[in-house]
Design a protein that fits this description.
This protein is of the alpha/beta class. It has helices spanning about 5-15, 20-25, 30-45, 60-85, 100, 105-115, 130-135, 185-190, 205-215, 230-235, 280-300, and strands at about 50, 55, 90-95, 120-125, 145, 160-175, 185, 195-200, 220-225, 240-245, 255-260, 265-275, 310. The longest helix has 27 residues, at about 60-85.
Length: about 300
């Protein structure tokens, strides 16, 4: 049994498909099939049910999967330790972040970090907070930037949470339109405007939907189901307004914003790490860069500082 076989097994379990797994691993499908067959012979048990093209785990496969993931995570940690010997001239960081943070705080932080440490490889995983918590707990990430507008479940005690900043939610509209005026707007006023919504399951969508529901309001939806980039583009084109975190306004002159009041909505951004894993020097350096970037955004002189507050 070797790490390559375990990696193949984990990928087939994740995709439920030999062809897709082979493409992800850059292997020919016959080679992947041989690896799985060899692994099954060495373990003396079938790992997958194979019926009419449908792949699912057997009981033996279900038992092996968490152990295989831990072994691969341990191997990755060893590689990280070896990179530590070379300092920050090389290495690899697996950073997770929510989509709303990827277009604001994370973009700024990665730009700064790459300038300071160009030899360190960065892998960015963009998912919702709940999925990032699961990936971190499974050893698939070194650190994650999450938002705390939702209940993140029972896995959080295994993790170390460090609050970074608090951020207001604001209402945005096209700068050349007439949908909003003034510095403040109530949720009732927003409900009457044409609105662009994120897809269901999006952390921000769940938080704003809960606010509308608790206030007995029903938004006037013109488009829903978008990711952050699409929602911003729709708003820039004058399709409607949207409720977004204040930091996404950095370098977006085509948008204007108003403070959401009655109620005022905000969220907390936190850095999550594994409490039982020693961070690498590269991961610690990235954490420091994120914190310094947050301080810079909170001191921004373009008006953003009114909506961003350091919490540490």
């Amino acid at each position: 049994m070797n790490l390559e076989q375990l990696a193949s097994f984990v990928e087939v379990a994740a995709t439920g498909h030999f062809t897709k797994a082979a493409a992800t691993l850059h292997l020919a499908q016959p080679s992947l099939s041989r690896q799985i067959s060899t692994l099954e012979k060495e373990l003396g048990a079938e790992l997958f049910h194979r019926a009419h093209g449908h792949i699912s785990l057997t009981a033996a496969g279900e038992t092996l999967l968490p152990t295989a993931r831990r072994m691969l995570a341990d191997a990755e940690a060893i590689r990280h330790d070896m990179d530590e010997l070379a300092g920050l001239r090389r290495g690899r960081i697996r950073l997770g972040a929510t989509p709303t943070l990827c277009v604001s705080l994370v973009a700024e932080a990665i730009s700064r970090f790459h300038h300071q440490h160009p030899g360190v490889e960065l892998e960015l995983v963009e998912k919702g907070s709940r999925e990032l918590i699961e990936a971190l707990g499974a050893g698939e990430l070194d650190l994650a930037l999450i938002t705390r507008t939702v209940d993140l479940g029972a896995q959080t005690p295994r993790l170390q949470m460090q609050e970074v900043l608090g951020e207001d939610l604001v209402v945005i509209a096209a700068a050349d339109g007439a949908l909003i005026s003034g510095d403040q707007i109530t949720l009732a006023e927003v409900a009457a405007l044409p609105q662009v919504l994120f897809h269901h399951g999006y952390d921000l969508r769940e938080a704003t939907s809960a606010a509308f529901e608790s206030s007995g309001l029903y938004p006037n939806v013109v488009v829903e189901g978008g990711e952050m980039d699409a929602v911003l583009r729709f708003v820039e084109r004058g399709v409607g307004v949207a409720i977004v975190p204040a930091m996404v306004l950095v370098d977006r002159p085509q948008l204007i914003s108003a403070q959401l009041v009655e109620p005022r909505l905000s969220r907390t951004v936190s850095i999550a790490t594994r409490a039982d894993v020693r961070p690498t020097r590269a991961a610690s350096a990235m954490e420091g860069t994120i914190l310094s970037t947050a301080r810079a955004l909170a001191a921004d002189d373009t008006g953003l500082a009114a909506h961003v507050r350091l919490t540490r």
